[in-house]
Each structure stands twice: as C-alpha cells, then as structure tokens.
Amino acid sequence: MTFSSCLTEEDSALVLDSSVVINLLATGRASSIMQALSMPIVVTDNVVREIEQGAVRERPEVDLLREMIGDQTLRVAEVDGPALQIFFDLVSGSASESLGDGEAATLAFAYSNGCSAAIDEKKATKLSVDRFISLRLVTTIDILAHDAVQSTLGRTALAEAAFRALRLARMQVREHQFDWVHDLIGAENVAASTSLRRLANRRKGLVRGHSGIRVLLNPTE
Amino acid sequence: MNKLTHELNPVELGERLKVARETENVTQDAGAKAAGIARTTLVAIEKGQRSARIEELQALSRCYGVSVNSLLRHEAVHVDLVPRFRSLPQTGDAGIDQAARTLNDLVRAEVELENILGVQRAHNYPVERTILPGDVRTQAEHDAQNLRHWLGLGEGPVQDLFALMELQLGVRIYSRKLDPKVSGLFAYDDAVGACILINSSHRKDRRNQTGGHELGHFTATRRLPEVYQDEKYENSREERYANAFGRAFLTPARAVMEKFKELTTGASHLTRRHIILLAHYFSVSRQAMVMRLEELDLTKKGTWDWFKDNGGIRDEQVRQVLGPAAYDSSVVDNPLSSRLFLLAIEAWKKDLISEGQMSEMLKLGRAQVRELLDEAAAEEDEADDLFKLPH
Lengths: 221, 391
Fold this sequence. Notes:
The structure holds 2 protein chains of 2 kinds.
Chain A: E1 14-16, H1 18-27, H2 30-36, E2 41-44, H3 45-53, H4 59-70, E3 75-77, H5 82-91, H6 101-112, E4 116-118, H7 122-131, E5 137-138, H8 140-144, H9 147-153, H10 155-168, H11 178-185, H12 187-192, H13 194-207
Parallel strand pairs in A: 1-2, 1-4, 2-3, 4-5
Chain B: H1 10-23, H2 28-35, H3 39-46, H4 54-64, H5 68-72, H6 82-86, H7 94-117, H8 136-151, H9 161-169, E1 172-176, E2 184-189, E3 193-199, H10 204-220, E4 226-228, H11 237-250, H12 253-264, H13 272-282, H14 286-295, H15 303-309, H16 315-322, H17 324-331, H18 338-349, H19 355-362, H20 366-382
Parallel strand pairs in B: 1-3
Antiparallel strand pairs in B: 2-3, 2-4
C-alpha cells in the first residue's frame, strides 16, 4: 500500500492545532517545512496560549513559535464572528462531547473560514468527522509527506526531522502511514521510537493472526 | 447578540467564574475591566442574575488564566482551596501561592475525572484527634502509635508512606516540582477530602519527613490548610505536634530502640555507619534519625551538632555503606499521583477527554502527556487476556 499525503492543492490554507504544532516544533525544521508548503498557515491564539502554558519543559519550542509568528511564517488568528459561536458549542457540554480550547478553536476557525485543519488528536478528529463533514483534516505526517516538503528538505533532513518529532514530541503515526515512516527513518529508528515500536509489533501480530488487534482511527482514508 | 447557547445554569457558571477569579487573585474591578463591562455587571454574572455573553466569557477566561472549556464542561468542579491558603501568615509568597494553585488544580482534575468516569473516591479516615492542653509531643507519640495500630502496621518501618496514605487512607496525594523552600501542602475540604502535595524535587527521605508531618496535620488539625517549610522554624503547638507525630510515625520508639540495640551491640561508639543503616532502615534522613535517637535518649543531646561540626554524614559515605544500588533507590523513587494519572489515562482511552483536555487537567506539557499515554499503551499491549479484570 502506498501512502500519499492528504495535503493537496485543494487545501488553500491550513490551521494548525497544538497536537501538530508541538510535533513540527520538535522537528527542528519547522520554519522550512511551513515555508515549503506555500500556503497560508494559521494558528489560533488559543493554541498559542496552550503551548505557552504547557511549556515548562518545552521552553525552546515556545521561543521558536514566537519567532515564526514574528517573521510571519505563521499567522495568529483570533476566533470571532460565526466561528466564536461554533467554538463555544465545541467547548460546552459534557467532557465526552466537548474539546479543549485549542482543539475547538482550530476546528471552529478552519470550518468557518474554509481552511483545512491539521490535527493529530483522536477525539477531536472523531468529533470533527461527525459534526463538520466538509472540513478537510490532515495530520503531521501528511505535512511531512507533502511533495514540496520532501523536495525542500531532502530525504536525510526529512528523516531526521521526523525522527526528532517522534522522539521529542512522541508524534502519533496512524496505521496507514506506518510504512512511509518506516521507509523514511529506517528500522533501527522505528525500534527506538516507543509509539512506532508498538505499532510495528501490532502489525507483526496482525500478520501472525494475533487476536485483540485494534484498528486505529483513520477518518481521512 | 451572542448569548451562550450551552445549557449550563447561570448560577453554576457564575459560581465557577467567581472561584476562578478568586483563585487567580483578580479583583472584581480588574475582571470587569478585562471583559469590558461594569463591575456591577460582573457581580450580577457571578450571582447568576445575568447570563455572560460569549465575548465576556472569553475575556474573563483569559484574565483568570483558565480555559473556556474548564468553565463550561458539565463535570467540571471548582475547588476553592487557594483562597484558604491566602489566609495563612505566609500570604503573598509567590512560591507558596503557586504551590497552592497546583494543589487546587490537581484536586479539581482528579474529582472531575472521577465524575467523568462515574467512580467515587473511597476513603477510610481515622477519627480526628484534637490537640489537648499539655505536652504536644506526648500526645503526638500516642496518636501516631494509635494510628499505626489502627492501620495494622505494628512496629516495623513504613515501606511506602505515600502509597499507604493514598491507598489505605484514601488521601489525595500529589507530587510536583515546587518552589525549593516549600516541602509540602495539606488541605481538607468536606467535598473532596484530605489532599497533600509534596515537593518532588526534594530527596526521598525529605519527602517522607514531609509526608509524616502532613499526616500529623491530617490526624489532629484536619480543618486547617497548611504549608510546610521544613527549613523554617515554626513554634506553634500545631507545628510541634505535626513534627513530633511524623517522627513517631516513621520512627516508632520501640522499633528504634530495638534496631539501635541490634546494630550497636558490641560497639563502643555510635558511628556514622550506625546512623546510615538506621536512617536507611526507617527511610528517614540522617538528621531526622539522629534527632530521634537524641529524643529517645539513645544518644547524648547534641550528637547531631557534633556530626555537623565534624564533617557531617556525607552522601559518599552513605553510598559506601549501602552500596550504589541501595543508595540510588534511597534518593529517587517513582512519581506520585498515580491514581490521578490512571484516571486520566482511562478517560482518554474511552475518548471521554482529549489530549488538550488532559494536558490542561494534569498541568503537563503535551510531550509529557503523550509519554504517559505511550507508557500506558505499551503496558496494555503486554497484558495478556489472562489479566483481564472481571468488571
């Protein structure tokens, strides 16, 4: 099975959730990656605040985020107008049917402004698929696997960037993306990455007919 | 325009806003200014007499440093421990205020996760004692001994004080890096029970001492919030009781006497080696051990001062006596608040909370949250069907 990025010309602008920003910052190549995409990239002010607040051990990443906002690699947007009502609907209600502020702001802003949302978080993804059928969703891996990112960074730098995101930010990889990541970073680095090692073991189990395999959520397929 | 459509009762929302404002120590004037409304309007919102508009709620949440989701989630509970700590004499200290907020946030998260998962915290508190007139040290010795018996501990050393308090008594225990001068905090609330926060950057023996001290407060002065700074001399009866209680609980008189006799038989002098072995056996600091020996008349008063004046008892000497492995395990151990983490992982696995909600509830960065989830998933993958729990 060949994996290709879900990020295409159909995506005119991309709104990044904290779950993706954290990964991109950890790559050490965030600026180059975002510039390579050649599309407007937006983060909501809720996401910026979330990253700043959770940054006790992630201080250099916050400085980098501020730098990218300063040089306009990223644009910070405030959720207002019709998006604000959607945001409030998403943060209200019981815990199981509501989202954190950053996740809700990302989906609300992207949906209201006809952008695509980059989000790795599984509950937010599920909720978005249920509520916003027309909203296009991509993941961090889709960004890394985008043709322009691959050609700008080159294979070695991209592999290093992906491995850093896996190691430092524990980036999540979905089942259908595994082979692409494996080919990129190599078996040794797969084994060194906790979440990927698990996915690899599960896939081995699947081949052997092991019971109890859970199918990972994959709404974009 | 832009009235809230969520179903949260305005009185409940008003109360949550008030607690969030007081926790952040923001005046009604400042809150109202941030939201662009009159102070009287904010008063009406806090009383539930007027609904907050979306823009107002967003501005207030920013001003109070909380998420809108935490104000509107149905299961959210608003614990108001912070203002109680502010009534203590140490008022105004930023490190203490931060520690009080951390405790408040962690308790709030645990109670909300219990609500989300539909579980209840079972606790098994001993009867509360009162500090009577007369010698507090004698009372503390007596009460500590009674609690030991009640817990079925006998006279032996306490293997894991925090697991005992969390699992056997049902006290909410957390451990986080705090301002170095803060050893621990204790608070009690009728709705949430007893809660203790320990400074995780302190050594294990020092944390044990803090735990013993807070257990003393839990036993006799449960209704008073307390900030423990072990390097600060406090001479109140409550503090002297808690210190004596901690010593008596961790180093029970009879057990210390027996172990002391066993170790020093045939020796002509009390040496560093004796102290190191005794301190290790009871999981207390070398200083706490020597002071206890002095208190029990097993060595002369002033022994600790003598050691201090003659080079102290150094880590290197401890390493030589105990061996590197035992020494390392005496310094580091697992982080606490295991129950809070278990609840959060369970809620995340069931899609009841998102990564963003978990990060905010546990006050952890995303990478730390993912580390927790990865570890939990790895353990789950290992577990065989044989280990399936029967509920």
